[in-house]
Amino acid sequence: MFVQDTDGEYKEFAMLETRTAQLPIGTKALSCMVGIEPATAKATIELPGNEPIEITIRELKNFSYAGLVFNAEPVNLEFGTVPVTDKTVKIKLDGKTLGELDSDSAQQLKEINYLKNGNPLKLKLTSISETGDQAFVLGESGNGHLLKINKINFYDFSGQTLNDQDYRKLTIETPPLKTRDAVFLNGEPLGVLHFKKDKNALRQLGLLKTGQLTPAPAIIESNFSVICAQIDPNTVEYPTIWTKEFQAFGTQSVNPQQLYMIESSAKILHQIKERPTFLFSTESNKKLGVMGLAVDNQKAETVTKWLTAQNVKFSLAPTEDVIRETKKGIAVFNLVDSSISAKTLESMTKKFGAVIETDSEYQQRVNSLATRPQFLKPPEQTAQSPPNRSITPLLSTTPSTPDIINNVKTESLGVEKPPTVTIDDLRNWYNAADKLGKSENYKKRIVEVANGFKAGEQLSAEALTVMNQDTFELEAISRLTQIAQRIGMVWGKSNENGTQVLGKIYDLAFNTQQRNLTICQKNGEVILNLQSGQVQTNKLTPQILQTFEDVNTQIDKILAKSQTQQIDLQR
Hints:
Blueprint: E1 2-4, E2 10-12, E3 31-35, E4 40-45, E5 53-58, E6 71-84, E7 90-93, E8 96-101, H1 103-111, E9 120-129, E10 136-140, E11 146-150, E12 168-173, E13 178-185, E14 188-193, H2 196-204, E15 214-223, E16 227-231, H3 245-248, H4 256-263, H5 266-273, E17 278-280, H6 283-288, E18 290-296, H7 300-309, E19 314-316, H8 323-327, E20 330-336, H9 342-352, H10 359-367, H11 401-405, H12 423-435, H13 440-454, H14 461-491, E21 493-495, E22 498-502, E23 506-511, E24 516-521, E25 526-531, E26 534-537, H15 542-570
Antiparallel strand pairs: 1-2, 3-16, 4-5, 4-15, 5-14, 6-13, 6-15, 7-8, 7-12, 8-11, 9-10, 9-12, 10-11, 13-14, 17-18, 18-20, 19-20, 21-22, 22-23, 23-24, 24-25, 25-26
Helix pairs in contact: 12-13, 12-14, 14-15
């Protein structure tokens, strides 16, 4: 969100919360800003004969005046080093610490006056999450009430899975009073002092003394980290041209770091999407006099043209006959052995490896591939128009191949009619190419294709394929960073350097401010490293991306289950 200053210029104000309702990009409106639950406050103290000092009061939400907003108003504060209650409530099991009672659960016990040190609990324990500092269990009482116990992995039962059929005896342990430098209002704790300079300044004024409270007048004002923008619907001005989110994603005026990441990630995306190519000739193939060629199904059309150019007789196996391969993103060609020249076979084996000659080895090779990620759908293939000669086939072995493939007959391939393409699709293509850092000549060619399309020309098969590939690239880069960020937010442990996740197979480090992301194996080998827009990859495979997709699905299940449990806790 951008806010207009006194000079009439719009300046960046803050990020929008991901779950909030959002207006179209470019919308203008009048808004009233309202602070939501202040986390800290600023107090200005001016005693006669002394320079005014300004101090910060922290942890407001943990004490008596949580939620109260101060608008630069005069109050009488008290300062002192006194015992302050710590809100951490621990749950003991067999004399050992199980975890910390969730604040909502603690409030439930407090409301019935049961939150006291040593009080017993009788609960059935069930582990819900077992990862990092997000690990927690639910305890069910005899009357069906639920209590949530957090931070299981920080205490004596770390790594254990609980799934009780019978009730256990547990004990509440409330912490002793803790001595802290604090600020009081009307005798009740308002917050605590944190910064050394604030404490020293108060001591010099004689206001901070151990074991007693010293009053002083002050002007206090709340600080907010979360703001609610209340939009006046009568002032909303929608943009004349609406912009899709991915079109604005990473633009220089909004997010330059992300733009650099996208521009540097073409090679990453190629590794993520690419399926391996290999030859096979099992016993059944040999009896029929054919050889199998397995390729990425996004390259099926290019392979078709190349095989035809090499005078190889072939047929493309119907998807219903190779269902498993199709799920893996593989297309299977049956090549007639007698039509493959020695030179062509040598070229293929050199590029794709030796021919697989046993059925078991072939099955093992196919099974080792990850399922094609759902958001990386292969583009609709069409071979009804000659391709653009400026695009070189991926499998070409001689400079003359592009000239040969222009004369390929495709009527017998059984290809479906080309999908419907609109001028908006071409505009989106141009925007995607721009975000991916394509050259000016590349974008100029897209404009030429668009102009021809508006004049009634049919979009070529190659242009359609490249258009889909560019669009998929942008979506895939966004998807990978989205999943990584979500994992960091759900399971991450934060410190001054950002967020870290220590997994069973991979470790992840994420910094939301600097847009840095590092994924590495447990042995320290870095898989993906994005630092200030500079991209480094090592063995980034489709299997790794699929692993992250699986984890993302797991997050959905855990959050859904946790949300259900939270509803039960509030009943």
